[in-house]
Write a structure and sequence with these properties.
Chain A is an alpha/beta fold. Chain A has five domains: 38-140, Glutaredoxin (3-Layer(aba) Sandwich), CATH 3.40.30.10; 162-372, Rossmann fold; 382-468, Ubiquitin-like (UB roll); 471-559, NADH-ubiquinone oxidoreductase 51kDa subunit, iron-sulphur binding domain (de novo design (two linked rop proteins)), CATH 1.20.1440; 572-627, Alpha-Beta Plaits. Classes of the chains: A alpha/beta, B alpha+beta.
Amino acid sequence: MKLKNTDALNALKAQSLKLIETRRVAESVSTKNAQGLIRHVMVCGGPGCHSSDSPRIAELLEEELNRLGLSEQVKVFQPGCFGFCEKGPMIEIHPDNVTYCEVSAEDVPTIVEEHFIQGNQVERLLYMDPNTKERFATNLPFYDGQLQIALRNVGYIAPENILEYIAADGYQALAKVLFRMTPLEVIDVLKESGLRGRGGAGFPTGLKWEFTRKSQADQRYIICNADEGDPGAFMDRSVLEGDPHSVLEAMLIAGSAIGASEGFIYVRAEYPAAIHRLQVAIAQAREYGLLGTAILGSDFCFDIQLKYGAGAFVCGEETALIHSIEGARGEPTVKPPFPAQKGLWGKPTCVNNVETLANIPPIILKGANWFSAIGTEKSKGTKVFALAGKVNNVGLVEVPMGTTLRKIIFDIGGGIKQHKTFKAAQTGGPSGGCIPTKYLDTPIDYESLTAIGSMMGSGGLIVLDEDDCMVNIAKFFQEFTMDESCGRCTACRVGTKRLHEILTKITEGTGTLEDLDKMEKLCHIIKDTALCGLGQSAPNPILSTLKYFRDEYIAHIVDKTCPAGVCKSLLRYEITDKCVGCTLCVKKCPMNCITGSLKKIHVIDQERCLKCGACMEQCRVTGAIIHH
Amino acid sequence: MCNSASPNEFAQKLDDYIDGLPYKKENLIGILHYAQEIYGYLPDNVQWHIAQKLDIPSAKVYGVVSFYSFFTMIPRGEHVVNVCMGTACFVRGGDKLKDELENQLKIKAGETTPDNLFTLETLRCVGACGLAPVMIVDGKVHGRMHEAQEINEVLAKYRPES
């Protein structure tokens, strides 16, 4: 059914509202007023929950409800990611406003019996605050302080049903742009909103659109950069899987604003579920006449094609991405000319990241002032972070720009795992840096992160604790950029390799103090001379750790020790006189190099010790086995 | 993946796919994805065939195949075991998981077991950071893999019953 005009879209929206009525009611009305509504069980289908068999849970719920004759009153949905990955698989029940955590297939009969037949909450599956032991059925502390703009529909609508997207104001921004705004007005709104690229560099999106529009050409292109390669970042994947239509709608808006009739989504082949969702969404949009010719009865024509990546991190760089779409090796080229002047097949091209695009429909609908009121002076709106590492609540977090790291890590993230001490937060992935404790209260935005030697990047936020060796972390990222360097420019190809060699030397205990100066100098040379963003930012993890954790480098070089006890070559395990002689470690040692009998202090044969740490993991007496 | 069809049938399938594309040279990466799906890998003769079919130098095809890590020129084992080496998994013991897998399978990452059952590879982030460290066997994610015993149990599921 092709939608011929705005009225048809509005009529379809009015009709479709009933699909999500239960969920909308849940937001505002108490349970008592929601009597008679069909209940919705939302089973999180995010990458983490999906890996923990959430599709099976959804299936079992349906079977069980069906068996008990409840399938008319209770419907099961599998939307995108709820964000709170740590406690997955999660389910939400509307309009009751109840969330269950860490649900397993075995819990399904209990949930159906207790919740739907008896009408009681299943207490043991409710979220429990690890500190206060308080249980929460709704308003989980994890969501306090979050503001969802890019993720507004993720986890809320069924992503494979275009009608649910339309019910949630979907394609209204497109209608507004096509019939009530001129292209220049659209670009002005974006410029005034202050939206900046969420892929890393933070270039103002409105300006990018303006430059592309101003380039004279017979054809222009829009590309959605969905090549999310940052290890530890999965926000784009969640948008693509949970709300694919918002990306399509934003690309349509971009197309009409800059005068493009064709768009491409460059998506990683490693994200098969996202690819599937996009294929379904594109087919549905075509069916409803939202892609194709004479969209909504206007004279605007636009279509979108999917292009697959093939595992090259450098393809996140826009010129490299363009070469990859053209079917070539994904090597970057010198800018200028910028893609806005000469991009895909030599035509002006606008490349926007997934999260950037997901922000656009609400900006068009609610206006530039609404958006620019959120955030800091130069960074507006929100940012999605993939919070991971040694933090209690791993998950996707969307917060207003200017939120402090302390709020994200300790309030939303629930603090450090196993009550250990926070050491650093790593932002910006392999292009970013490590932020030490003293900057926990810095309001984070593009400028402040750059000022303290890191960067926003795509939004990976890895929390490190006392057990992480900063030299080893720097080496990890260096190994990554060394592997992913495309080899086109010498600075990056050879430079990253040399840096990795020096770091390896240091972690093996053969580094010298001169190596630190040499490394620092090389870092600056690479920053100044590399061809693209990957090379220019590759030294950041080293420079930031050298700046804030120089003492750890010195400990490796001068004292030949690894303070965190990570670098194996520098480790030495010893058994102290606190040993009670339980023989547990003797049995566990894979080399059989611990000697000792019952109730006698054991001894490790240092010659044969592999430094695997198995003994220390097993030991039940604090301080009986130490490493230094 | 690989099935019992003959090489000629594969070539025919690939040709049909290429013939059905509106643009050909520009779709080289898509064609290689498809070829790898039917052949399981991209040997020289397949690359040569694609080059001829698209009328482009075979060096260009090789250049693209060797550039992207998703493409492989050596056949993989029956089951592909991937260890996530993303940052979140790394700080929660991803390297230990890799060592343990290398130890249990008696091969290094990038290699295939002599019985052709398992290929061990590494990748960067599958977005299941809440379950770190994770290993992925034939696309299925197994999370919180800390103990040698748990890893062994996962691998056992893919071994033929004897």
